[in-house]
Amino acid sequence: MGGKKPPRVIYWFRTDLRLHDSPALKAALDLQPEVLWPIFTWDPHYVYKVKGGVNRWQYLLDCQNDLSGSITKLNPKSKLFVLREGPQTLFPKLFKAWGVTHLVFERDTDTYAKERDRFVMQLAIKAGVEVITRYGRTLWDSDEVVAKNGGKPTMTIMQLQHAGQKIGQIPKPIPAPVSLPDPGETPLNFEHNEPDSRPDLNAEYRENKDKTYSTISGPTGDFAPETLEELGFPSATTPHRGGETIALKMLSDIIANKEYTATFKKPNTSPAAFEPQATTLLSPAMHFGSLSVRLFYWKSQEVVDGYGKGASSPPESLTGQLLFRDMYFAAQAGIGAPFLQTLNNSHVRFIPWHLPSKYTEDADNSDGPTTISGEYQVDSPVAEKWFQRWKYGVTGFPFVDALMRQLRQEGWIHHLGRHLVACFLTRGGCYIHWERGADVFEEWLLDHEPACNAGNWQWLSCTAFFSQFYRCYSPIAFGKKWDKSGALIRRYVPELKDLDEKYIYEPWKAPPQALAAAHVKIAGDGMGDAKEGVYPEPMLDFNERRTVCMNAMKVAYQIGLRGDDKKVKDGSWKKLFEDAGEKEMEGAEIPSDDNGSEADDAENENHKRPRKTRTGRKSDAVKEGPMDRHFKKVKAGS
DNA sequence: TCTGGCGTTGTATAA
DNA sequence: ATTATACAACGCCAG
């Protein structure tokens, strides 16, 4: 140890944008660094390959700005240095130029991020840089939970709790640092790699030219966090703002209300409440790591312990919600990448929903496709129309539409609201694949967490975690139960704001006088330009569809295929359902005479599509390393 | 190995 | 108004 150079440490912030309760940051400071650079790198994967609405970008920028300010408060010379280049190309140059000895970060949980981090660790080893990581994203280390659950993913809350008990007490929160070392010099005497932005899944959101990667240190040259303008985005529409300061204030306000905290029962909170919402709204903060889940856990638990009789307990309680979050993370850790899809997922039921995902060809896998491509098959034009009407909140069912519009505008809806719209899209109405719904939530939710999103969609669609498909949410009755007067509908579906409460959940039943008095007409499908004073007709007969869906679910359960079944991959599942007389999936066939060959063609269509690599190149795709597809090769001589 | 009880968050109807 | 029950019936978990 004696002859070693004093530590020059990069602390790499990613999804842990906070100073309070950060085990990884503590590990960095325990090195007693000579200099410490708090950095954030702009990963092109998230900029271009993860579809995300402007609201979530705003929330991320809020978190970065707040964190940078908090760092500067501890050391006026320091801040969050935001570097506009992918970590895979940036780090080797940075290690050398800045004389780095240690790289420290909190471990990630997503497939892409884990792969990226393995790659970066190899770069560090090559450069003689020591890497230190800690977990801090979950209550317990998800890999340890899986190990204690017999090496299996946690598919019930009981399994999670048992595994957690075996591991031991959830670590107590670590106080925020009271001081931070100076940052070192930040020379940029190296070439800047601009990533390949194609395809840019967020192009539709950009109003102006994307300048994300124009320079490493940003337009002002001082590594300041980006602005929406720099990313080419318009202003956000969400009222929910990010940042550790706000998150800690929200948490302290919640726990100051001892009765709310100690007696919280999730199923008793209203999905129709707004201003204020019935739940904590801290899920986006946990997603970006501006709030530590363990700090939340222990602050809540202390209130429960001090409350005595009458306190709620898991799974309904506040801490119970955090346990469910850990359950999904440990399910993902146990199953791996297929957790986010049906294909190749041994724990998810196969149901022949409409609008199924297309598969990505795997040249190196003779066993058939293993991943979904992000595109889907329009097997039924009617289902596609239902899906679009669901997504944009013009189904003609006011409570569904209110929730979907709230989601799109604000990036957040109550958990039970998510239940209703998810059930309606899948097993309780449209019979559309849960992966389609998960795509929309991924795009619009501020708190989008891949593991929790996929897990909850599996739950609601009764493909994993939950199986009582005969319990079906009604788009009419469920809202009424919580909000008889339809306040949520009046707020988010203003066309109906003056409609008599008797008809607010079923406006198509309103007599002409009631509609005239409310200055609204019930007409059309809601697609195209919105017309003043017009609200669409219901897109389906819910009672009829509920019966159809339930019968179809029953058949699918009897057939009992899982996502990793060979028949799912090769398309031979179809015959099983035909033999069982399943009618709903007939929409999944191209109308044809009895030989069935056209249907087979439709099924094989995705295998015939030309190979599309992420770089858009074809011939040299095989020679690429695992991370190469995320950025351009260094431009020779430029 | 079998079995009854129960599962964070359903609905419609009846008492 | 609250509470019970049928609906048609999954699958984990503990005994």
Automatic annotation (TrEMBL):
Protein name: DNA photolyase
PROSITE patterns: PHR_CRY_ALPHA_BETA
Gene Ontology MF terms in the entry: deoxyribodipyrimidine photo-lyase activity; DNA binding; FAD binding
Comp. bias regions, Acidic residues: 591-603
Organism name: Microdochium bolleyi
Recorded superkingdom: Eukaryota
Sequence segments annotated as region (Disordered): 578-638
Gene Ontology CC annotations of this record: cytoplasm; nucleus
Keywords from the UniProt entry: FAD, Flavoprotein, Lyase
Keyword presence, Lyase: yes
Cofactor(s) for this UniProt protein: FAD
Cofactor binding note: Binds 1 FAD per subunit.
One matching Pfam family: FAD_binding_7
Biological process terms in GO annotation: circadian regulation of gene expression; entrainment of circadian clock by photoperiod
